[in-house]
Design brief:
The structure is a homodimer.
Chain A (H helix, E strand, L loop, with lengths): L25 E4 L4 H18 L4 E2 L7 E5 L10 E6 L2 E6 L2 H16 L8 E4 L5 E5 L19 E2 L2 E2 L3 H12 L4 E3 L18 H13 L3 E6 L3 H4 L11 H17 L5 E4 L16 H12 L5 E5 L19 H6 L10 E6 L23 E6 L15 H9 L11 H5 L10 E5 L15 H12 L5 H13 L3 H21 L37 E2 L16 H8 L9 H4 L2 E2 L10 H24 L7 H33 L11
Parallel strand pairs in A: 1-2, 1-3, 3-5, 7-10, 7-16, 10-11, 11-12, 12-13, 13-14, 14-15, 15-16
Antiparallel strand pairs in A: 4-5, 4-6, 8-9, 17-18
Chain lengths: ~650, ~650
């Protein structure tokens, strides 16, 4: 029944040279907790497999590696310093988690065959909270999961086994310090996860997680006091409801080591919430926050709230505006242990969206950036789509909320407003497939997300190279070719799918494959408004006014089509097909060109991969090859459907006379 | 668990006048079989409920009603004559089924308060086989079922209870003489229906059916010899396979009274068939035919065979051609107890299709017309759509296969080619809803299909009036208003859905609600090819050539756009939006106009129904009202999506300046 699993980027292959073996004779640590123990044993395991060194414990004086807790060294509990001098390696931190992260950093250096001599590295994690959200259901399915079933749940049972530890190692090795194991849509038996029913398994799981410095969080059902507690309401202002949650929190924090808190999706897509009782999201979140505050607990509150019963004929209502409209009036009203979890864009994980205006809007509210590595709309782990370049762009976006330190990364790392309850979270892409992520190259997103959350100064190329070295070794040809595939992949995917930020041209429901009008006459607020003359949604001040939700400078940029960055042109403006883009070609010609290019690049990526046949393990080669062959042909389907759709609407021929069906 | 059910058109209400009571004092029959017994007890029951007469059995001399078997009277086993003279009513036939049909005819007269004096009616059923196909699955679901779950199956069990008899009464009362109880897609436990597993229940069921003159048929899985018999193939030319089916037939005919034979969907939409073994459909069907021949059994072989993996870019392949292409070469190759079951049109039960060219094409093959009353594409029993006018048009279609007697009705009744194994079949619209058909008005299709199959000379207005009188009584206002709704309903549905025969503008999969491009880029061969300039599929000789599958005269009619009947214009031709139709308006204006009209008529039908509030039973009134309110608003959704789609493509404004979104 239980499926095998591989080690992903922690698959240690023996080093081809012996430059670093001298450093790994023995290890000392002054840490006495479980995480320090984890650090030592991870180091020992890696030294053995990578270098053939059997590391003993040694004294402070003798040990060749020292993992040292140094109070007040300025690194914090999670930061670390690695110093090498005279054949001795020191990893220092104020906390054991810092030591563990330092050890994993050393291991990455060894995997990359980097020399340790004279090394001096100092890292403090960028984001305080570095989180994964798993949308795993208790029946074992995963909402928007594309790599098998859940390894957390099966048939209403919580699974705790070797794979739980293997997962915790992977997550911790890249710096993840918080994990939500269950789907934000909490229904059925998942509502009972906070009951005694699953206490034994959750205790065992949180213990494993705690050993790797990971806090376990649970998604909760806002209506739990009714469904479990027999109360007649879940009104956050009802003292009985408040009391019920207090008791629930006391119970959970009493028995789950390092328990983090709750994630809540309320009043969204049919989930219950405070609106039912005429209360605000702040009242809802604060009630829960009060219940967990004395344990240092946090409430993560999702901002994905919109009207999902829209009429396509209504051109005034704009789903993009709903997050800001709902949450801006509440700025400053949330407790200090509430964090708003805000999707990167105002819609829903499309291949290209502007940054949510809540970033830079909210000034007195903790916020956290939510991205999705599950590729729901970006190829579902069947297409290669290395998403780190997108995440990086989002983080570097200048919100203009002040003169400097105004980027999204400044906000979510606490630099802008001095917050400490903030960070970044990804909807995870794992499942019980042997390689964890279905597509082997999708693991670069999991690895990369963790690495970027820990160190936002890393370039996306550096992250790709680290992952390739750890996963496939650092053969220059492998490095160059897989890097090339990864770096091409997001722009290529964007080229052959929906153009210039318009999004949503997918099959409704499962969100895979082209369907230009798939959502056009539906109730989800996701329209492209294409007619014979042009396409795009007018979100300027004379349209829906969404652009005005940004700070002045950005509002001016987005509000006028001549200032608007062209990759987002159709998100903000309705543009005639014959409009000339800055590169001199018309919009329609740009659509044709990018689609021909995208499909051709998908084929090119396949060719590059095929040239690696002798270089990567056969199983991996074939798994990836099969998916990339599908991608190449599916990209042609995208190309042809999109091009035909626009040709049939506009009847403007391709200037190059290529085949449009 | 078991749901209640109503009596539909067999709900007898007490007559308001006593004109006919004198005739129903006593009854005599010289029939000695079960069907004659049924006829007597049906007559007794109706006389009691309708007239308050308690009918005794009487002698030939004394009885006021005589049900008389008269050998060689020229009526056949199923025909009947009703004669009234001097207060005495005689029903005569050569067979007991004829007596039963005669009795039901008398009952309809009583329900309609018609006088019996001097009556002289002689009827011989038009179609030898008058069949219903139920697409019921063993788990209790019904494929394309819109009126609850199955009353034949539940949780892999066969149900035989009071409702079985109630169903048989309904079917028999309108002349149905053959019923297939299980879905043509035979999978899982349905494959085992021909095994001993269900013998007790099927015996009981076929006994009930036989009492009403109905032959039970079963859909079979062509791969049964492998799945059940452990054979390595299902090759129809393999003697072991042939032997397996022979034994199976011997077993079934041995234990099921009046068992009819098998219905087979082979090599279609993923179902197994003879193609797997390089055999023809004739070889497959004949093998089965040989197995059942000695029992007088029949094999009904469906002609719904096409490539369901088509590429939308391919404009040469035409799904419409596949039935003819597959079966014409086999004309004359089938055994005499094989009947080809041919859908009315070449596609799949759209609101408007041309008649399949297999009618009039095949000359030496038994054929049966298949229609669908389940309304899969015609409103799914949520919209009113009285389909008899469509069926009538199909039956009256002149195939031009000879000088006269060349209509579809001539072919399927055996008049053209002298066949006796032929007839008409409907995919049924029943389920375990209390009123049998979900929408109360949908019962008119079930009633009407049976009546038309028995008497193709009936007009669709007469059938509607018969059904209304039996169901609601013959109050003139009820009669006029419900007739009006029924007679409007098909043209109205056609107006607000896809225009001029093009079809398919529905949501993929569940086939409900508008989605103009829903199937346009899919693999099902169902395209409209709409671009900025026009719409329609060129099936002329210079297009796919489908029109050439018809006999010369029809080929010429369909092949040229100026000769083509306009209701099928877009089925046969790609037409510019500014093309002027014979009524003087452009195609695009016709699309706009019909959609505004259709939505407005849907509202008008609702208004008519609402005016009947005091006239029909409250439960029925409310059930129908709810559905008609939905229909009226759904028709607006259709109107707006279709009009917007074409406006956005053509940018040609509505001449009347009405609102197009």
């Amino acid at each position: 029944m239980e499926k095998k699993y591989e080690k992903a980027w922690l698959s240690y292959r023996r080093s081809r040279n012996a430059q670093n073996t001298g450093h790994f004779g023995s290890v000392f640590t002054n840490g006495t907790g479980v995480v320090a123990e984890t650090a030592v044993s991870e180091l020992q395991g890696a030294a053995k497999e990578l270098l053939g060194c059997h590391m003993e414990r040694g004294s402070w004086e003798e040990a060749s590696v020292r993992l040292i807790l140094e109070p007040n060294c300025g690194l914090g509990e999670e930061g670390y310093e690695i110093r090498e001098s005279a054949g001795r390696l020191t990893v220092a931190s104020e906390g054991e988690r810092g030591l563990l992260y330092g050890v994993f950093a050393c291991i990455r250096l060894l995997q990359g065959e980097k020399p340790l001599e004279g090394l001096s590295v100092r890292k403090i994690p960028s984001a305080p909270l570095r989180m994964l959200n798993h949308w795993d259901n208790m029946d074992g399915s995963i909402e928007r999961g594309y790599s098998g079933d859940s390894f957390f749940f099966r048939e209403d049972k919580v699974l705790v086994d070797d794979r739980t530890r293997a997962y915790a190692r992977l997550a911790s090795s890249v710096g993840i310090n918080a994990v939500v194991i269950n789907n934000v849509n909490v229904k059925g038996s998942a509502t009972r996860l906070i009951e005694d029913d699953y206490s034994r398994e959750l205790e065992a799981m949180s213990e494993i997680f705690a050993g790797y410095g990971i806090a376990l969080y649970l998604s909760i059902n806002f209506a739990a006091p009714m469904e479990l507690g027999g109360h007649e309401s879940a009104d956050p202002c009802d003292p009985q409801v408040q009391q019920w949650w207090k008791e629930k929190a006391a119970d959970l924090y009493g028995r789950l080591p390092g328990f983090g808190g709750f994630l809540v999706k309320a009043d969204s897509e049919g989930r219950p919430g405070p609106f039912t009782y005429g209360r605000t999201h702040a009242e809802g979140a604060n009630m829960l926050a009060d219940a967990v505050a004395s344990y240092g607990g946090r409430i993560i509150w999702r901002c994905f709230v919109y009207n999902c019963q829209q009429d396509w004929r209504d051109k005034k209502t704009d789903r993009a505006k709903s997050g800001y409209d709902n949450f801006m009036p509440l700025d400053g009203k949330f407790r200090d242990n509430v964090i708003l979890q805000i999707k990167n864009g105002p819609m829903d994980f499309q291949v290209r969206e502007p940054v949510s205006p809540l970033f830079g809007g909210l000034e007195h509210t903790n916020s956290m950036l939510e991205v999705q590595i599950a590729q729901e709309y970006t190829g579902q782990q069947r297409h290669v789509c290395y998403l780190l370049p997108m995440f990086k762009q989002v983080l570097e976006f200048k919100t203009c909320c002040r003169e400097d330190h105004d980027r999204v990364r400044d906000i979510v790392t606490g630099r802008t407003f001095g917050q400490t309850n903030c960070g970044i979270v990804a909807v995870a892409n794992t499942g019980d497939d042997e390689n964890w992520t279905g597509h082997d190259l999708a693991a670069a997103n999991l690895f990369g997300f963790g690495r970027l959350s820990f160190d936002m100064d890393l370039s996306v190329e550096e992250i790709a190279e680290e992952w390739i070295a750890c996963t496939f070794g650092n053969d220059p040809e492998i490095m160059e070719k897989i890097s090339k595939i990864l770096m091409m992949s997001w722009p290529t995917y964007e080229k052959y799918t929906s153009p210039l930020g318009i999004g949503w041209m997918v099959n409704p429901g499962y969100h895979y494959g082209p369907n230009v009008d798939g959502y056009e006459y539906d109730r989800w607020g996701t329209y492209h408004r294409a007619d014979h003359k042009g396409i795009g949604v007018d979100r300027s001040p004379t349209g829906t006014g969404y652009s005005e939700q940004y700070r002045r400078q950005n509002a001016d940029m987005y509000g006028k089509r001549e200032n608007c960055p062209e990759e987002l042109l159709l998100f903000f403006h309705h543009i005639p097909y014959d409009y000339r883009l800055s590169i001199g070609k018309t919009l329609i010609q740009h659509i044709y060109d990018t689609h021909f290019e995208g499909a051709s690049e998908a084929k090119e990526m396949l060719d590059i991969w095929n040239s690696l046949e002798s270089k990567v393990p056969e199983t991996v080669f074939e798994r990836v090859q099969k998916r990339m062959e599908h991608q190449a042909s599916h990209a042609e389907e995208w190309r042809d459907q999109i091009n035909t759709y626009f040709y049939r609407k506009s009847m403007i021929p391709d200037e190059q006379g290529r085949k449009i069906y």
